[in-house]
Design a protein that fits this description.
110 residues; alpha+beta; Aspartate Aminotransferase, domain 1; 6-stranded antiparallel beta sheet; 4 helices; 31% helix
Length: 110
C-alpha cells in the first residue's frame, strides 16, 4: 500500500481551519489526528474513518463503505471507504463531520 496524494489533498481541504489537528505517516499511508486521537487514515486503498461505536450504521449502508478489518478482527466504529466513494463530495463531507463530532468528544491524548 502506498500514499494517495489526491485523497490526502481532499481530506486536507475538508479539514481546513479545524483546530487541534496533526498528521503523520501511519498504516502505510497518511493519518490525521485530532487532539492526539486518530481521526482518519488515507492510502491508495481508500480512507479509514473513525465514526465511533454504534455510530457507523448509516455509513455501512452506503455502497463502497464497509466495516474496517484489522488483523482479521472487525473494528466497531471504524469504516473503510473505497477510493471511488471518497470522490463523492457530499458523502465525504458527511463522513468528515461525523468523524470530527465523535473524535472531538474524546479526551485529548498527551
Amino acid at each position: 500500500m502506498t500514499r494517495d496524494a489526491g485523497l490526502e489533498e481532499l481530506i486536507d481541504g475538508e479539514l481546513e481551519g479545524v483546530r487541534g489537528l496533526s498528521n503523520k505517516a501511519m498504516f502505510g499511508g497518511w493519518a490525521w489526528l485530532l487532539n492526539g486521537n486518530l481521526l482518519f487514515g488515507a492510502r491508495d486503498a481508500g480512507l479509514l474513518v473513525r465514526l465511533g461505536k454504534d455510530r457507523d450504521d448509516w455509513a455501512l449502508r452506503v455502497p463502497g463503505i464497509e466495516r474496517a478489518i484489522m488483523r482479521g478482527r472487525a473494528m466497531q466504529g471504524w469504516v473503510r471507504v473505497s477510493p471511488e466513494t471518497c470522490g463523492d463530495d457530499a458523502l465525504r463531507g458527511r463522513l468528515v463531520r461525523a468523524a470530527l463530532d465523535f473524535v472531538g468528544s474524546l479526551p485529548p491524548k498527551r
